[in-house]
Write a structure and sequence with these properties.
By secondary structure, this protein is of the alpha+beta class. It is built from ten helices and 16 strands. It has a seven-stranded mixed sheet with strand order 3-4-7-11-10-9-8, sandwiched between helices. A hairpin with a 3-residue loop joins β1 and β2. The termini are far apart. The C terminus is likely disordered. Bound molecules: biotin. The site of biotin has 20 residues, from α5, β5, β7, β10 and β11.
Length: 335
């Protein structure tokens, strides 16, 4: 999406009608360019009203990202971050990984209104919507090596839980290693990418994607049960600038604690928010095989602990899903 499209969007964000001619004059471009910019809005899935003689309007304008508003909500913590707010980017993780290799400062953060090639875990695509998702990446430089960071993605989950609670979302839960669920549907995901030596230092790019208000067209592309903040709590939860500030503030606290003490001091809080704790699950392993058991906790390095028929097992990688245990009838047959 071109910069001009974002300029047009910002004019239309007062929810009033604006004629193509007036917008062209205001932005110093031709009417044809405005028309092209409006056509590009289709890509983003935003609803646009067009009324002959009155012009165009956005009936439901999103709250655009606003650097000043984010910093104001962060208050004294604003100085901790080096924040860049972009209209559009292929992937905030990819851009921040490139900047990290070029010595971007500790706590650099990139957030974008539109991410066109969002990366998910396990090579998946992360689908977002223009103004309808919160997609950002944070660079955190650790003195330690990759071994120490194995519990980092779980620690990030703790920060997300705290921030969502502060934002008014009461009953979110975690799914190992770091999905955020609401009523068993995915609300947010985390992708961490690392640069550095085995023994440190390490640059960690922590990417977070959170569904705020997904149009049906985007939701249809998601290959698992998904939920957004709008479905959970309506318009009161849609403030992306405040939400990002809450998440960054909690991330700063949790990451500082993690640097000093590792995951162990956050473990109890994490387990307390794990949607699958005490549940029977199936763990799909990278080899294509699976193990089944009951979730008994997580280890200090963030591995998932299962009680299986063959004894206690721990897993550092894999994809966990709830197992439907067939109900056993009194006569011993299964339903
Ligand atoms: C997952 O698969 O659950 C992880 C999704 C992570 C998506 C976020 S969106 C911001 C950041 N940039 C990316 O390209 N991916 C992460």
């Amino acid at each position: 999406m071109k910069p001009l499209t974002f300029s047009v969007l910002r004019i239309l964000s007062d929810a009033d009608f604006h004629s193509g001619e007036a917008m062209a004059q205001r932005l110093g471009v031709s009417r044809g360019s405005i028309w092209n910019a409006l056509r590009a809005l289709d890509e983003g899935g935003l609803e646009l009203h067009k009324v002959r003689g009155r012009g165009y309007r956005l009936p439901d304008p999103p709250q655009w990202l606003d650097r000043e508003a984010i910093l104001a909500t962060l208050g004294t913590k604003a100085t901790l971050f080096d924040l860049a707010v972009l209209d559009t980017v292929e992937s905030t993780n990819r851009t921040l990984m490139q900047r990290a290799a070029l010595d971007a400062p500790h706590a650099s953060c990139i957030v974008a209104d539109l991410q066109t090639q969002g990366r998910g875990r396990r090579g998946r695509i992360w689908h977002g919507a223009l103004g309808g998702s919160l997609t950002f990446s944070l660079l955190w430089r650790f003195q330690q090596g990759a071994g120490f960071l194995s519990g980092l993605s779980l620690a990030v989950g703790v920060a997300l839980m705290r921030a969502l609670k502060a934002h008014g979302v009461q009953d979110a839960a975690l799914k190992w290693p770091n999905d955020v669920l609401h009523n068993h549907r995915k609300l947010a995901g985390v992708l961490i990418e690392l640069q550095g030596d085995m023994h440190g230092p390490t640059a960690a790019v922590i990417g977070v994607g959170l569904n705020v208000k997904l149009p049906p067209g985007v939701r249809d592309h998601i290959d698992q049960a998904a939920v957004d903040l709008f479905s959970i709590g309506g318009a009161s939860l849609l403030g992306r600038n405040q939400l990002l500030a809450h998440i960054l503030a909690h991330l700063a606290d949790v990451l500082q604690q993690f640097e000093l003490e590792g995951f162990s001091s956050l473990r109890e809080e994490w387990v307390g928010r794990h949607a699958y704790h005490g549940k029977n699950v199936r763990m799909m392993l990278p080899s294509g095989t699976y193990e089944e058991g009951c979730v008994s906790g997580v280890a200090e390095d963030g591995s998932l602990l299962l009680a299986t028929p063959d004894g206690a097992r721990r897993f550092a990688t894999g994809e966990v899903s709830l197992r439907r245990v067939p109900s056993t009838a009194l006569d011993g047959t299964t339903a």
